[in-house]
Amino acid sequence: xxxxxxxxxxxxxxxxxxxxxxxxxxxxxxxxxxxxxxxxxxxxxxxxxxxxxxxxxxxxxxxxxxxxxxxxxxxxxxxxxxxxxxxxxxxxxxxxxxxxxxxxxxxxxxxxxxxxxxxxxxxxxxxxxxxxxxxxxxxxxxxxxxxxxxxxxxxxxxxxxxxxxxxxxxxxxxxxxxxxxxxxxxxxxxxxxxxxxxxxxxxxxxxxxxxxxxxxxxxxxxxxxxxxxxxxxxxxxxxxxxxxxxxxxxxxxxxxxxxxxxxxxxxxxxxxxxxxxxxxxxxxxxxxxxxxxxxxxxxxxxxxxxxxxxxxxxxx
Length: 316
Hints:
The chain is mainly alpha-helical. It is about 55% helix and about 5% strand.
């Protein structure tokens, strides 16, 4: 017969008492049970850590002490702390997800969800800058020596740009997922758990083969740590650290991993790929999200007009 432990008793008591920290933990447990990605769990953990710090400062201990005003003040607190509009919006989304889940799961009596009265922070519509091709060339030039790490890092840099995958998807690729001859790569679980295929070109495949030629391990992962450190699957923070280290050697400001995805999107658009195909390659269900990736210049628009302007191209 099931016997409740003291720890379980404390947990149940805390839930009854509406303890904020315990409900946040319960939310994360539920998300894990629902099979959301590790990246999403990490996203919630980071955002909740900041929210808990704010709540402790404001002496908010229970979920039902959270009000529309306290949420608005938290957003202002984030702004003062230096978070940009996108960052503030991300924190808002995490709180919104939690409060809607709490409303559905706890079914609190005579409680009104405060998030329903708070408008999401406005995000500027100006698309973000991708990493420049010049910067990528400088990063690749730091990988000139024929060592395991240099060959791996060069293959990573080229693959990040060529495939346009999200960092989390990129790091989960296994050796069995890639066709080294044709360059198609199976992303088994993209955003929302949806599989898709991405591609790398001839030069990237050549660099990848050089990297794989250095390997002598049994790891199923495509990207691994140096064999002297165990040949473990490369983590997000390991990938990010590599990029920071290479940027320092190249004498440039370190781009974010997502900047490579933006560069992929803009390069594909400039080469004439239609937005519907591009959305599929990037794992978007609609083309709406692409507008945040595609920072076109005046030169881009001038070239488009010279190629397709109606007067010059329709026989007048």
